[in-house]
Amino acid sequence: MPTHTLLLLPGDGIGPEVMAEVEKVLAWLGANGPAAFEVTRGLVGGCAIDAHGVPVSDADMAKAEAADAVLLGAVGGPKWDGVPYEIRPEAGLLRLRKDLGLFANLRPAICHAALADASSLKRELVEGLDILIVRELTGGVYFGEPKQIVDLGNGQKRGIDTQVYDTYEIERIARVAFELARLRSGRVVSSEKRNVMMSGVLWHQTVSALHARHYPEVQLRHELADALGMKLVQAPKQFDVIVTDNLFGDMLSDVAAMLTGSLGMLPSASLGEADPVTKRRKALYEPVHGSAPDIAGRGIANPLAMLGSLAMALRYSFDMGAEADRLERAIAQALAEGHRTADIARPGEPTVSTSAMGDAVLAALAA
Ligand code: NAI
Ligand code: MG
C-alpha cells in the first residue's frame, strides 16, 4: 500500500477549525482507502510569528519541500496588523508559493444544484457549472521588471509595471491545462489579449504550437480576455478548462468564483514543476477564503472549501482520482441532504456547525 506524506498548515482564524474536518476525513481514508497517509503539522502565518518570530520557519519550509503535498487553512487577522511588512502573515504564504515554485494555480468553480439559487445569475445559467481556471502564478505583470514609480521632475510621476512572459513559462502552464483537460471534457479555452499585447501574441503562438505538436486530440479555442469575461457571465456552462496569465487569471477566477455563490465553497490547488523522474509535483492546496476573523472561534465556518482542497490533493498529488470523486460526491450529498453552515443558508433556514458539516460529509463518504 502506498504511503503519501502530507504537511498540514492550519494557520490562523478559522484555518484550524476547517482543518480539523480534513483530519477526520484523512483518518477515514487511511482506515478505508487504498493508501496510507503520513501526516506532519506545522505553523504558518500569525501563529508562526507568535511562536518563531517569522511567518514560516526554515524547519517548516523543509517539511513542505519534503512532503508530497501541503494543505493550508488560512493566514492573517487583526492581531498581526502591526507587524513589519516583511514578516506579515501573508509573507509565509508567499514564501511557500515562491520556494516551492508553484506556477500553476487551479481554481475550480462548481455550482452545486443545491446552491444554485445563491448565485448572482439565474439558476438555469449556473446549475451544473463545472469550470477549471488554470492561472499562471509566478510570471507576468505582477513580477516583470522594471516595476517602479519614477519621479518625472515636473510634478508628474510615472507608475511602471512590465508584462513579461517567456516561451517556457507559457508552455509549462499550457501543458498543465491540456493534461487536466484530458482528465475532464477534453476542451481548453486559452485567453490573452493578442490584439494589443505582444506577450499575448507570444502566448497565442506558443499555446497553438504546443497543441498541434502534443495535444491534437484536445479541443482548443482562443478567446480575448475581455470577451471571455463577458461570456463567463453570459453563458458560463460552455466552458471547461480555461488557461490564462497571472493578471487575467486573477480577475477571471474571481468572476467565475462568484457564479457559484459562496466563498466558503471554493477550493484551490497550486502546482509546481513535475520531477522528470518521479513525475511528482510540489503542490499546495488551500481554500480561496481567508481566516475570517469575524466568525473565528465560534465553530460555524464552512469546511467545504477546505475539504474540496483535500479532494484536489487526492486527485492531483496522490493519483487517487476515484477517492477524490467520492469525496466530492459526499460534499454534494451533504448539501443535497440540506446541511447548511450559516454562510450558505437562506434566511430562516436551520444551520449546522463546522464539525456537524464535516460529520455529514463523512457519513456520506462512508455510506
Ligand atoms: P475572508 O475570506 O477571511 O472573509 C470574507 C468574508 O467571508 C467574511 O465575512 C467571512 O466570515 C466569510 N467567510 C470566509 N470564509 C468562510 C467560511 N469558510 N465559512 C463561512 N464564512 C466564510 O477575507 P477577509 O475578511 O478579507 O480577510 C480576513 C483575513 O484573512 C485577513 O487577515 C486577510 O489578510 C486574510 N486572508 C488570507 C487569505 C489566505 O490565507 N489565503 C486569503 C484572503 C484573506
Ligand atoms: Mg484575486
UniProtKB/TrEMBL annotation:
Q: Which reaction is catalysed here? A: (2R,3S)-3-isopropylmalate + NAD(+) = 4-methyl-2-oxopentanoate + CO2 + NADH
Residues reported to bind NAD(+): 77-90, 290-302
Q: Name one GO molecular function term.
A: magnesium ion binding
Q: Which GO terms describe its cellular component?
A: cytosol
Q: Where is the Isopropylmalate dehydrogenase-like domain?
A: 5-361
- Give the E.C. number(s): 1.1.1.85
Q: In which pathway does it act?
A: Amino-acid biosynthesis; L-leucine biosynthesis; L-leucine from 3-methyl-2-oxobutanoate: step 3/4
Q: Which residues bind Mg(2+)?
A: 226, 250, 254
Chief location of this protein within or outside the cell: cytoplasm
Q: Where in the cell is it found?
A: Cytoplasm
Q: Which cofactor is recorded for it?
A: Mn(2+); Mg(2+)
Query: Hey, where's the site called Important for catalysis on this chain?
Result: 142, 193
Keyword entries, A-Z? Amino-acid biosynthesis, Branched-chain amino acid biosynthesis, Cytoplasm, Leucine biosynthesis, Magnesium, Manganese, Metal-binding, NAD, Oxidoreductase
Cofactor binding description: Binds 1 Mg(2+) or Mn(2+) ion per subunit.
Gene Ontology terms describing biological process: L-leucine biosynthetic process
Q: Which PROSITE patterns match?
A: IDH_IMDH
Q: Which one Pfam family would you cite for this protein?
A: Iso_dh
Q: Which family does it belong to?
A: Belongs to the isocitrate and isopropylmalate dehydrogenases family. LeuB type 1 subfamily.
Which proteins does it associate with, and in what oligomeric form?
A: Homodimer.
**Primary role:** Catalyzes the oxidation of 3-carboxy-2-hydroxy-4-methylpentanoate (3-isopropylmalate) to 3-carboxy-4-methyl-2-oxopentanoate. The product decarboxylates to 4-methyl-2 oxopentanoate.
Name used for this protein in its record: 3-isopropylmalate dehydrogenase
Q: Which organism is it from?
A: Lichenibacterium ramalinae
Gene, per the UniProt record: leuB
